Amino acid sequence: MFLKLAVIATLCCTNALANFTSYEGYKVYEFTAENTTQQKTLENLAQNNAYDFFTLPRIFGLPIRVLVAPADQLQFQQTLETSQIAYTTVNENFGQSVEVERKLNSMYPKQRNSAPGSISFNVYQRYDAITAYLEELSKTYSSRVKVTSIGDSYEKRQLHAITITNGDGVANKNVILMDAGIHAREWIAPAAALYVIQQLVENYEQNSHLLANYDWIIVPLINPDGYEYSHTRDRLWRKTRKPVTIFCDGTDGNRNFDFHWGEIATSSHACASTFSGSSAFSEPETQALRDLMHSLSGRAKFYLSLHSFGNYLLYPWGYTSELPENWRDIDDIARAGATAIKTATGTDYTVGSTSNVLYPASGGSLDYALAKAKIPVPMVMELPSAGQQFDPPLSKIEELAFETWIGIKAIAEKIIEKYKLVDEEN
Ligand SMILES: [Zn+2]
Hints:
- GO terms for molecular function: metallocarboxypeptidase activity; zinc ion binding.
- It comes from Bactrocera dorsalis.
- The active site is at residue 382.
- By secondary structure, this protein is an alpha/beta fold.
- It folds into two domains: 2-105, Metallocarboxypeptidase-like (Alpha-Beta Plaits, 2-Layer Sandwich), CATH 3.30.70; 127-425, Aminopeptidase, CATH 3.40.630.
- The chain has helices at residues 2-11, 36-46, 73-82, 94-105, 127-140, 188-201, 204-207, 224-232, 284-295, 327-345, 354-358, 365-371, 397-425, and strands at residues 27-31, 51-55, 64-68, 87-91, 145-152, 158-164, 174-180, 214-219, 300-308, 312-315, 350-353, 377-383.
- Strands 5-6-8-7-9-12-10-11 form an eight-stranded mixed β-sheet, with helices on both faces.
- β2 (51-55) and β3 form a beta hairpin.
- α6 (188-201) packs across α13 and α10 (327-345) runs antiparallel to α13 (397-425).
- The protein is globular, with a radius of gyration of 21 Å.
- It starts with a helix and ends with a helix.
- Bound molecules: zinc ion.
- The site of zinc ion has 3 residues, from loops.
């Protein structure tokens, strides 16, 4: 499927609407693996680029979703039936859902749909709106907010990082580092990052305890080229946009980091959605994030990368099923987030190492943050999808962003408590 999409993307032309990749007739199937044999079958199927596995957890009984093109559906269903995997079709026509979402999202002519200096969560905001919001915050709250560019994307969009402080002027505080949107199609992730920014800046009084001894540095859209492309051309675009071959563009940013790069569950085929890149750090976006991480060496205590979907709080390692030395600490902190969310909204999050609960994957920013940038507590949060589509419907964005904030806040409070104790002991 990705080869086909890439060809469409490379060869076509001027009319943006006409070029929007159609998923007409594509179905989304949902099922679970109940034993090792079924799991193996599914892992084999996932190797086939014809099937787009949105999720493939390794824990039996958790939902798995796959998008399948019309021509491949019969064979796919037969394979499931042969393996006695009971499935349901959660979306009969993914193309129609994409079209509905696209129309709704473009109904707001100015996107922002809010007063200057704030931002609304009733649409998925575009790059220009996000940029304008960040710049307005830096002007309105100049004593507490600074917006910098940490580099340019391949298509020369600035990669913005917002530094949020309590304005007391104390330098070199501990840092909480966040990014979102390395996977372009996971639109709820940048939305949730913007919500965190809004809470820390516009709702400062209620959250000042989170900024007393910590600065927050947030990159709400680390892959803006891919994100814009997923809005204008192909809803399921995941990668960056730098061309690789004459047929295929883009690298999976979250397989492009130089730690066990290219080893496991990544692809060396340029057309694949998990292409690890022509070399480690081949992409300007991952280089910028790497440099930001290293510039915060010793200060950054917590790194959080936002993704979707599937309700997971994940920690290293991705490249092996072994666990890092301090996994108990990280696990404890992650569970504080999961518990806070469960208490607030009833949503269940699964907590564990990437490789053990979701799937092995090497070259990710999570492993790099711990192993190379020495950030002691790194996590990935896979946000819920709230329905049939890849991302929550527009009406659910704010609700989910709020729920995510509850979890992040609880995790941050736990981090602050933990390192206060460590500092006191030293
Ligand atoms: Zn992702």
